[in-house]
Amino acid sequence: MKSELQNASAIAKVMPCKEPRASIDRESARAMLGKNLFGPEEWLSCYGIWFSEQQLEEISEFPWNESVLNAPCPFVKGKRIKETHFAFLGVYQINNKPLNVLKWHELNPFTGKQELRAHPWYEDQDFARVKTCWFKWYLTLIESVPSSTEKTHQEQLEMLPFGYRAPLVIEELTKNILYYKINGAYPNFNTWIRCRDVVDVGMNNCRICVGDFIRVRGWSGDRKHSAIGVSAFRKNPHSRCIAIEP
């Protein structure tokens, strides 16, 4: 008996422990998400962006596995994450120019309601001219967090479960545009999303909101509003990305 236990112990030390993979390959993610994924193939067909072999290797692994995508959505009862979330590959430049908010407006001059101004008030603000997405995968709730309007920004942040964060303007804007490109529908068309970017307008700090598809406006202070909610981006689980996760 003692010998059998020793042998079993020795085998246990040698046998590798099979744990669920933290990530899955890109094609498996595409098969699960369908039109809820905008990857390198869509960047090529929609915007003519080619990726090198090295770049494709960098994003070959999708950082959320089957268990995550098949899990119940923490925001929409009765739905799974793969049904309520949208994944997209972030790109930081297009035609050798930074893909910032202003560039997106140049590429998409019309919203669903009206034309964007050629020289918006925020054209010299960092959130519009400097910030871009990282070259990595993003996973985000398609619509705003349910019941997140009529709340202060802090109250909205407290609604986000562990592993989620509020977006930057460039991230929310990019999500809206890419989702529309392959689905023909406007996310949050009747709700403005309060983002993390803040600008100083003299009297009060303005937190920037994205709404009407790709329009941008400031909302002073931390006031509640019936049309201002919050979005939810899933934090990237890869350790190499956590250090740069905004």
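Above is the first protein from milestone M3; the second protein from the same milestone is given next.
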Amino acid sequence: MNVHCLNTYRPGHGLPGSFYTDPEIFAEEQRRIFRNSWFFAGHSIEVAGRGDYLTLDVGGVPVVVVRDQDGGLHAHHNICRHRGSLVCTKEKGRAARLVCPYHAWTYGHDGRLIGAPMMGEGFDKEAHGLKPAHVGEFDGLIFVNLSETPSPFHELRDHLSPVLASQGMTRAKVALIRDYDLDVNWKIVVENNRECYHCEGNHHGYVSVQYDTENDNPALKGEIAERLGECRRRWERAGLDVARVNTSSNNTAEWFRANRTPVRKGMVTESPDGQLVCKVLMAGFTDPDMGTARANTNINFWCHANSDYAHTVRITPVSPTRTIVRAYWLVDENAVEGRDYDPEAIAAFHHQVMSEDWDICRRQWRGVTSPSFEPGPYAPDKEANVDRYVRWYVGRMSA
């Protein structure tokens, strides 16, 4: 990568414009970050049955995640070891074996090559299995890592699981999946997600439900403290981990974070009016006022899980100028569509927030791609998480 680009970055400021458009920088991001980190792939419920698989792109590499006959999870490069065809051509499916459609080379769920027609007696099938990838699973979430020496998965799991384990994503079902195809660089999306400096002026629905913008409001200091105290005591009695109950979005680790935050007084979930949008609560909750369990990684994932539904996001960078954001909405496995919930009502709150964010991202994209763009300084408090994220990013790109 052009070292000069890194030399133009000033700590405490945004990234120079070339970081959002340069194909060489994007290629290095794919290599240094996305193919070398724990990348959110999807949900366990998407591959719940034996032989279930899902496919995705990780750092420009086709990957397949598959559940074997014993319930184990495997991840492989979705590339036939013969002539390089994709093996699994659908986004999701179920297969007793993974068969390449080109010349019918056949692989087991564990990636072993078990059939290669007319390759001759001297052909070594054991040497031609699918190339493996690392895979980790916890609390209904699946992450993959293409590095030969990945960072310890337990660091991510052990930090997020105390907050997310209670949310019932292992006993859920998908209510809705929606893909947002954005003509902007992926970092524009992540940076915007890392701060709520913009929320009061752009997300009126969000700030009417959450306290994020009120932490420094003297008029609500007492209400927030009272709400936190009451929720913390009630949630602890319900068996939740309350070590990270707060109204902050600050980082709680180097490249990932998680906390539980109460919604505003009188409200119980993230919805346009703060009231339930699914009659069946997740995880066997009996109290609807369980706050929002929030988590994210610097790579491609964030999550807002409420008592009645969970919302997760997977970001896939496609090119320097194109990003696909996949949004999931999950409900309890016993909830019945049309009786207990309407998928559009489940999605309404976060779809509105994201639609507002995409408008913000498109406007910023027009600016940062201008020859006259010069990055300004971050607000020390309101944009501290963005600053931390960018410093982390520069560190990864410099390593």
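Note on the second protein: The CA atoms of residues 311 and 329 lie 5 Å apart.
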